[in-house]
Amino acid sequence: MYTRRQFARIAFAAPAAIARAAGIDSTVNGVRLGAITYCFRDLPRTPGQDNLDAVIQALQFCRIGEVELYSPNLEPAGQPLPPEAPTPYGMPRTARPPRTEEQNALNRSNREALRKWRIETPTAHYKDIRAKFDAAGIRLFALTIGFNDSFTDEEIDACFRQALALGVETIASSASPAIAPRLAPFAERHKMNVAVHGYSVLNDPNRFASPESFAAALALSPYFRINLDIGHFAAANLDPVAFIREHHQQITHLHVKDRKKNDGTNEQFGEGDTPIKAVLALLKREKYPIPAFVEYEYTGLRSSREEVKRCIEYMRTALV
Length: 320
Known about the structure:
Radius of gyration: 20 Å
Largest sheet: 8 strands, parallel, barrel
Mean pLDDT: 90
Structural class: alpha/beta
Number of strands: 11
Distance between the termini: 50 Å
CATH superfamily: Divalent-metal-dependent TIM barrel enzymes
Order of helices and strands: HEEHEHHHEHEHEHEHHEEEHEH
CATH architecture: Alpha-Beta Barrel
CATH class: Alpha Beta
Oligomer: single chain
Strand content: 5-15%
Number of helices: 12
CATH topology: TIM Barrel
Low-confidence stretches: 1-21, 87-91
């Protein structure tokens, strides 16, 4: 016999359990396809709130069942910055006039508010977020944290505890080689993988990009791994197929985009120089357990969810 309270708990939990059992399956011929939720950065944000409901709806529209959760999607949006001064006629955008003191002050205020939120938000909040994705039939694989020099040790530790509460396997980060050594003891304390994200400019000491820079990251800790962005890797005139074949045991997941060589532009899938089909064929043939996540960055003609759906369909078709 159940008490009324016990029965209510069972009745409440049953729909979520059913949803998890009938989750969205975006695996094709053994290859796990998904997306980083950064793809949906055009979705509206309300200051002080997250936009997870809209993100989940977009993932369901695309029939994507596994994701890397981009941390700004779960964090409260800061107050919007005042608009920057327009670029004077004939001046390149890279030479835009510096921000005003008002813009800088608000940026600093937003940063402090975010740090406070990360440190003070209880574990239960993140467990509720995990439950929301579970109920939607979507698996959280990794959490993106853009660690940089502005992070205090207390904030870094809070981010690792956040990832643990979300139940993810990996923190993916565009951390620079300079800050990476600070992350190693936190990774080891929390037994959490940190996957460094690579870029395409091989001579930038502040970016992971070359095979040598990845090797240096792996040497920092047994918990360090590689989040290989095959688009950036190809844009650096490197071969992602060969690199994956040689280093598949150190790669947690892939970001999939299509870029031109020689640090060229982002293109629609199939129109750049990234060997997307060859990479997917390798994962399929060798049965590497490496998820391949869309990272939509080209200039699309449609909404992000429509463009991401086109990307994931391109990948599905390549694997059939």
